[in-house]
Amino acid sequence: MLKLEHESHTFRAARALLQELRVLSEQLRSIEEQVVALKDRRARVTQALEASRLALSDAERKKLDDECESLPSQRPTLTRISAPARALIDRLRSDLDKTWRVEELQCYLTSRGQDVSDKYASNTLRKLYEQGLLVRIGRGKYRAKDTILSIEGLDDMDIE
Q1: pTM above the 0.70 mark?
Q2: CB 62: neighbour CB atoms within 10 A?
Q3: Which long-range contacts (CB under 8 A, 24 or more apart) does 27-34 make?
Q4: pLDDT at 147
Q5: Which of 4, 49, 79, 121 has its CB surrounded by the most CB atoms within 10 Å?
Q6: CA dist 37 to 30, 126, 134, 139, Å?
């Protein structure tokens, strides 16, 4: 670094600003890391809330949904359970040790008068998997976790 015999007042001020910029950059980096960690935590809490919401009674779920309305604009999106999804959950509950294929569950729904596409069945199973209610065994193959037994209160109020 070039050594000046006499630093001007402007040069000293510029160096002070440079030092402040370094400090601010480090603080900003730290805050950005905290924001990432908070967003990850919010996603995990939202997922846990969604899973526990499924186990609530109708009245409790309605009350919780009303309370969620007061959250800031980035509030978690809580899903409703459609009639076909409810039927899939009931079928999955019937045998926790069985590995279910999408095609089997789709045929089950069809036999119950709920004609759904294979894409709908796949997406519904994927969502249940993402909520921690299923284990993915392989492509298009799922097994229910014990947590699926705790889902209560699935009634017509939840149909979208």
Answers
A1: no
A2: 13
A3: none
A4: 60
A5: 121
A6: 11, 25, 26, 31
